[in-house]
Amino acid sequence: MDICKHFGTCGGCSFQDIPYSVQTLCKEESIRELMSVYGINCELKPINSYSEWFYRNKMEFSFGQKEGISCGLYKKASHGELIDISECLIFSKDAGTILKAVKDYFMLKGNSVHNKFSHKGFLRNLILRETKFTNELMLGLVTTSSEELDKDGFVNMLKGLSLNSTLKSVYWIVNDSLSDAVVFEKKELLFGEPFIEEKLDEFKFKIAIDSFFQVNPLAIKNLYGKIRNYAKLEKREKVLDLFCGGGSIGIFLAGSAKFVWGVEVSQPIVDCAWQNAKENNIENISFFTADARAFLNTQGAFYKDVDVLIINPPRCGLSNKIIRAILRLSPKTIFYSSCNPDTLFANLKALSASYRPQLIEPFDFFPHTPHLETLVLLKQIKKEI
Ligand SMILES: C[S@@+](CC[C@H](N)C(=O)[O-])C[C@H]1O[C@@H](n2cnc3c(N)ncnc32)[C@H](O)[C@@H]1O
């Protein structure tokens, strides 16, 4: 496939002009280098790579005022300059059709675009979510409350589009906040179902307009499957999934574990995790809404006999305080999956007196970008006293 016509200006993916096989080699090499810098000597599995195009399941576009109404992404290294996007090769084959139709529709209707400096105007963002195994599409139009939306007209226009995926859900989100981020002050389902549904192996996951779901479903399915294979659970083990998000790793492991606990700081995401567990008829799982460190410090003693700890933190990794709490918890096995190799390796060093990496395995979750997901299996070599 040719590279995207917006490559070079769009801040989305910076590696598209590098052949994909070279990208994966470089990513693998970057992990090898970190292993050498940190003196880690264990098996490095080959990088896992999947479809390099149309892998993302979510994009958040912004409206702008270039030549009438534009809608797209911010330009690389610019202060808020928007590029009008007509295709997005890492997201969806339908992106261009939808963006054009939505822009044309609002041009005809004469609606205005929100200006983030004056805070005047109507159209703010367009959120698109697409499942990859079930081909369902969800659209969220984000506006201020300053103008009327012709709800039926908007939905009918969308229903008339010829798309590859099935349009299952259309939301209108009102956001009058001063924040640049999308704030779901008010949301209204204009058409279809409140959720779209992704299928990973035998499990179903409902995705809401505002819920967290890993961006690359094909890659995440494989990562979860690998964790399940390496863990070799025998229905006796207790598993603690810190930073559990929508609970999907725990849901993958629950069938072969005795019990799984998930800890997640965001209440809406925990609600989603409960819903996912219910949807998949999983009963030996429980979720806690809590900060991971506070949870370990206040309830760590209660979960002292955790056999397997799963850690999948945000890019900032683990603080020293969480690391100390993990050492006190003292699980025999840890799976640490991280989207930031730098913080991952710094954390491995901090754990090294008690835990030794058995294998390291990179997963290319984010082709054509510099980002990389890495899984490490650690075994306890010394108990914290
Ligand atoms: C990389 S995501 C992992 C999600 C999940 N493991 C999955 O595979 O879908 C990190 C998650 O950690 C949550 N989080 C961030 N800071 C946290 C904290 N201090 N304590 C608990 N959860 C936190 C975020 O809300 C997010 O859902």
Q: Which structural class do the helices and strands define? A: alpha/beta
Mean pLDDT across residues: 94
The CATH architecture of the largest domain comes to 3-Layer(aba) Sandwich
* CATH topological fold name of the largest domain: Rossmann fold
Query: How many separate domains?
Result: 2
Spans of at least 5 consecutive residues whose pLDDT stays below 50 are: none
Bound molecules: S-adenosylmethionine
**Helix share of residues?**
25-40%
Number of DSSP strands? 17
Give the helix tally.
Answer: 9
Widest sheet: strand ordering: 1-16-17-15-14-11-12-13
How is the main sheet built?
8 strands, mixed
CATH class of the largest domain: Alpha Beta
Strand content: 25-35%
Order of helices and strands: HEEEEHEEHEEEEHEHEHEHEHEHEE
